[in-house]
Write a structure and sequence with these properties.
The protein is mostly helical and about 425 residues long. It is built from 14 helices and 3 strands. The chain has a 3-stranded antiparallel beta sheet, with helices on one face. The protein is elongated. The chain starts with a helix and ends in a 9-residue tail after the last helix.
Length: about 425
């Protein structure tokens, strides 16, 4: 009996050993096959290292490695067999095809899309693929590139499209950087790409410049960092406080008062930035500039609130909470804090109610405008502008210094305030 037991145990061990060997042998074959195919490991989609990148206009450029990776991954092609043209733009139609290829590859496909019929646009099957994927996932596409297929794609739009592709393919990018807002953007899709090290901005402050045209080199860099995690960036962006750093003023410094209400540097920030657009500083009449400042404050901030009170318009508690939540997301945007954005957003909501109120009462003109509202706001703004009491010494504000510091910014988002 002991001998039979020994033989049975030996047979079991022999079978286990054979099974383990088979697994190891199969694994070796798979690894050898991947190596033979020249594919890289640790990338989100396969990259064929045996594919030679044929472009002679990207050699030694900042985007050379990125272009090579995108070409070897089958995501980007050249304009000709030998030219990539890294500084030329990518159209919305081309972005549609790139996005569809990337989505298919991230989802385990080959990236080869169906050919459109003769009656369809060349990008039609790619767009349909994206629409079907979004529909199956219960997602509504927030962009519609097919409306202007030949237009050069904006940087912002490209990132939004890629963010959608990552969502549809259930691809999560790990967070590498602590970025919650940019000087020129608080868009969640853009912020997530900074956090993942896909983007780091186009100047020392990390500004994205989302409304600039996208060029082929930039697209390659963004795509390559998605494909190959080893290329992702880690960094820290400097913070900028518009009032303290650019104006060199305390944001709580009182400029004007009206009754018991004070109006501060923070509230007047967009109007102070108006100094940037004055070409000839020597011709500036300081007294006139501060008169413009008080009138702007009155027209844009005081008049809407006074008129809303006269019309019996108040913001609901729900609206106030939504405004505060939105303002928190913007904290630091344009170098301004939550407090500023809460004030701006509440004024915008008040104006929305005023437009509805006046539209119901007076109707609108052929352009959808309510002239009566503009007239009433103008009269109130003019009146209260003369009622403001200055609480500062004009000589304490260095307008020339503010203008110079605004102009020294590599990209000045503050001019859009």
């Amino acid at each position: 009996m002991g001998r039979k037991l020994f033989i049975n145990i030996k047979r079991i061990f022999d079978r286990i050993a054979s099974f383990v060997f088979a697994i190891l042998f199969a694994s070796t074959i798979l690894i050898s096959s991947a190596a033979a195919a020249g594919e890289t490991e640790n990338t989100l989609i396969p990259i064929s290292q045996t594919t030679v990148c044929p472009f002679n206009d990207t050699k030694d450029l900042w985007c050379e490695e990125s272009v090579n990776i995108c070409y070897q991954a089958g995501i980007l092609a050249g304009v000709t067999d030998t030219l990539f043209l890294p500084y030329s733009g990518l159209t919305n139609a081309q972005i549609i095809v790139i996005a569809a290829r990337l989505l298919d590859k991230l989802s385990g496909g080959s990236g080869i899309l169906e050919s459109p019929s003769n009656a369809e646009h060349w990008y039609a099957s790619a767009y349909q693929y994206l629409q079907d994927a979004a529909s199956n996932a219960g997602i509504t596409l927030s962009w519609s590139l097919a409306n202007e297929p030949d237009k050069i794609c904006y940087r912002r739009t490209f990132v939004k499209v890629l963010a959608t592709v990552l969502t549809l393919s259930k691809t999560e990018l790990p967070k590498l950087n602590s970025v919650s807002v940019l000087l020129d953007s608080y868009d969640p899709a853009i912020i997530s790409f900074y956090q993942a090290g896909i983007l780091n901005g186009s100047d020392p402050y990390g500004c994205f410049q989302g409304l600039e045209d996208l060029n082929r080199g930039q697209a390659a860099a963004i795509l390559a960092r998605i494909i190959d995690p080893s290329l992702r960036l880690t960094f820290e962006l400097p913070s900028v406080d518009l009032c303290r750093d650019i104006f060199q003023l305390d944001p709580d410094m009182v400029l004007y008062s009206l009754g018991d209400t004070d109006y501060t540097v923070l509230q007047a920030a967009p109007y102070i930035c108006g100094i940037w657009g004055l070409d000839d500083y020597k011709a500036i009449n300081v007294e006139e500039f501060f008169h413009y400042l008080s009138l702007s404050l009155s027209r844009e901030q005081i008049a809407p609130r006074v008129l809303a009170q006269q019309c019996g318009i108040e913001l609901s508690a729900e609206e106030q909470q939504e405004i505060y939540d939105s303002a928190q997301l913007k904290n630091g945007y344009m170098g301004l804090p939550t407090k500023y954005w809460a004030g701006v957003d509440s004024t915008d909501k008040i104006m929305e109610h005023l437009r509805d109120y006046y539209s119901e009462r007076f109707g609108t003109n052929q352009y959808g405008q309510t002239p009566e509202l503009s007239l009433d706001l103008g009269e109130l703004g003019q009146y209260y502008g003369t009622q403001l009491t200055a609480k500062f010494d004009p000589s304490s504000i260095d307008l020339l210094g503010i203008k110079n510091r605004l102009e020294e910014m590599p990209y000045c988002p503050f001019i859009f305030l």
